[in-house]
């Protein structure tokens, strides 16, 4: 029974059904602890998986307790640099960081780095993973002086590893390091730091695109051809992709391994028909989809590779977003300095976010929070380029979805309301300049009403003195006190009176 519960829990966890996984894993843990003891290797496997299931539900206090117990046992048995200990340590650092227990997380990172240095060497991939992680922890705390040297060291090491091998994972790690260092440099805001950050983003994007346009694109198209013709005509809905996944996951483990993918392809395509998918290519398909590097394809990875298409992948999307944010920040700096922003770079910023929105919509769906965040960012870029009509349409869609899923008292929803009110006010000013008083008054009145509603929600959820409430009050004073609104209302009222006489 313990084995069945463990395998079921593991599969559910991989499928994203973390609460159900937790139930089965707790049953398996109790049985194995009673039968084998708390420190038996099979018990520790369940303990670590249960900790991960809790972590993925944001039950970080419980996750940290379970993962700490597993890590201490692995470390005592085989040392901190043991492969099982490293996997658990990575999860544990994540849970500690999520609880803002930064000192404890830092101590664990340093302990593991020292152990990896001794066992593998300073430039080994395992050592670099935890140096990168510690740099990210410092970045999260805005300790940029501590983060930068670690991230530079990780990047230098990963450049060497990537140049010495054709391994896809080495390249993926390299691009991640480029992006992480660039993000820290971007936060420094100095001209030299921003220039270096931009260069890193562009280098990583260029290299990623080469991968996408080359073998990576071919491999992705392999998935689309196999599963499009073999099952459902590339039905990219959740239900369609889950059905496709289940056809291949014959042992119902929640993952597709190399043998299962080979067997499926052989069952669909008779010898001499179908695409030229040899064993090497099928292995590349698994490597392409396997973003968490466990050697198999879980459901989330399968959905991602089926939805990504050959144009972008998650790495290139994140790089484009960060580069877009840098260009956006550059524009703001120039405006603050009274300088005219470079129109071509603002146009590039818009182009980057448009590509990201297309890719996010394909990858996650139109109502996913990641997609909505990208749409909101693009809308504000459009607003900065005086494209308010399109910005208004986008922000209305985002606000509608967030109201429905998060409620108005959520900070993300309130942020969208602020953005929409700003755009409505801008449109009102434009209409006023064209002499369209009634329409201008309507937009301005809507902006004020939206801010009043947002302020009430913010006061109730966050409090009168919360930064969000303060911002809304400032926007409200700005909108309701503008000559545009007052003049439009006066002219509209006058027009109505004249019309009635």
Account of the 3D structure:
The N and C termini lie far apart (86 Å). A two-stranded antiparallel sheet has the order 1-2. It is globular, with a radius of gyration of 27 Å. The longest helix has 42 residues, at 191-232. The chain is 80% helix and 1% strand. The chain is built from 22 helices and two strands. Residues 229-233, 270-276 and 483-501 have low confidence and may be disordered. With 501 residues, it is an all-alpha fold. It folds into four domains: 1-119, Serine Threonine Protein Phosphatase 5, Tetratricopeptide repeat (Alpha Horseshoe); 221-308, Orthogonal Bundle (Recoverin, domain 1), CATH 1.10.238.10; 315-335 and 344-405, Serine Threonine Protein Phosphatase 5, Tetratricopeptide repeat, CATH 1.25.40; 420-501, no CATH class.
User: What's the name of the CATH homologous superfamily of the largest domain?
Assistant: Tetratricopeptide repeat domain
Estimated share of beta-strand residues: under 5%
Number of strands: 2
Provide a count of the helices.
22
Helix content: over 70%
Task: Give the CATH topology of the largest domain.
Answer: Serine Threonine Protein Phosphatase 5, Tetratricopeptide repeat
Task: Give the class from helix and strand content and strand pairing.
Answer: mainly alpha
* CATH architecture descriptor name of the largest domain: Alpha Horseshoe
Q: Write the element-wise H/E pattern from the N-terminal end onward.
A: HHHHHHHHHHHEHHEHHHHHHHHH
Low-confidence stretches: 229-233, 270-276, 483-501
Query: How many angstroms separate the termini?
Result: 86 Å
Domain unit count: 4
Biggest β-sheet strands, sense, barrel: 2 strands, antiparallel
Give the mean pLDDT: 86
Shape: globular
The CATH class label of the largest domain is Mainly Alpha
Biggest sheet, spatial arrangement of strands: 1-2
Radius of gyration: 27 Å
């Amino acid at each position: 029974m313990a084995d069945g519960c463990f395998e079921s829990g593991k599969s559910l966890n991989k499928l994203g059904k973390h609460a159900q996984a937790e139930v089965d894993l707790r049953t398996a843990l109790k049985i194995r602890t009673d039968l084998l003891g708390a420190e038996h290797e099979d018990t520790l496997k369940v303990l670590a998986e249960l900790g991960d299931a809790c972590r993925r539900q944001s039950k970080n206090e419980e996750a940290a307790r379970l993962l700490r117990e597993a890590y201490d046992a692995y470390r005592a048995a085989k040392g901190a640099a043991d492969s099982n200990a490293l996997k658990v340590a990575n999860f544990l650092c994540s849970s500690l960081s999520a609880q803002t227990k930064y000192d404890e997380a830092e101590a664990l990172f340093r302990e593991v780095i020292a152990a990896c240095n001794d066992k593998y060497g300073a430039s080994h991939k395992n050592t670099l993973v935890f140096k990168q992680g510690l740099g990210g922890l410092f970045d999260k705390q805005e300790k940029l002086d501590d983060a930068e040297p670690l991230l530079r060291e990780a990047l230098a090491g990963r450049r060497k590893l990537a140049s010495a091998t054709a391994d896809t994972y080495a390249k993926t790690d390299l691009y991640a390091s480029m992006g992480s260092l660039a993000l820290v440099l971007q936060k420094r805001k100095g001209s030299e730091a921003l220039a270096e950050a931009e260069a890193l983003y562009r280098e990583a994007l260029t290299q990623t695109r080469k991968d996408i346009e080359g073998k990576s694109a071919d491999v992705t198209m392999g998935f689309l051809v196999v599963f499009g013709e073999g099952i459902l005509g590339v039905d990219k809905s959740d239900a369609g992709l889950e059905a496709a996944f289940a056809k291949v996951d014959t042992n119902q483990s929640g993952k597709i391994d190399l043998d299962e993918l080979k067997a499926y392809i052989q069952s669909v395509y008779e010898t001499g028909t179908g695409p030229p998918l040899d064993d090497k290519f099928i292995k590349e398909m698994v490597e392409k989809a396997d973003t968490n590097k466990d050697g198999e394809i879980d459901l989330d990875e399968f959905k991602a590779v089926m939805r990504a298409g050959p144009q972008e992948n998650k790495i290139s999307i994140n790089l484009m977003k960060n580069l877009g944010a840098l260009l956006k920040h550059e524009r703001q700096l120039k405006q603050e300095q009274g300088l005219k922003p470079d129109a071509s770079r603002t146009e590039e910023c818009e182009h980057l976010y448009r590509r990201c929105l297309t890719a996010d919509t394909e990858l996650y769906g139109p109502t996913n929070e990641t997609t909505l965040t990208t749409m909101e960012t693009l809308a504000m870029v459009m607003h900065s380029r005086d494209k308010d009509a399109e910005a208004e349409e986008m922000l209305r869609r985002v606000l509608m979805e967030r109201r429905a899923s998060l409620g108005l008292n959520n900070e993300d929803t309130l942020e969208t309301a602020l953005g929409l009110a700003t755009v409505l006010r801008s449109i009102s000013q434009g209409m006023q300049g064209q002499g369209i008083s009634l329409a201008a008054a309507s937009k301005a009145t809507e902006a004020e009403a939206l801010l009043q509603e947002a302020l009430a929600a913010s006061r109730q959820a966050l409090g009168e003195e919360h930064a969000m409430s303060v911002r809304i009050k400032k926007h409200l004073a700005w909108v309701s006190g503008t000559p545009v609104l007052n003049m439009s209302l006066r002219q509209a009222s006058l027009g109505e009176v004249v019309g009635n006489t």
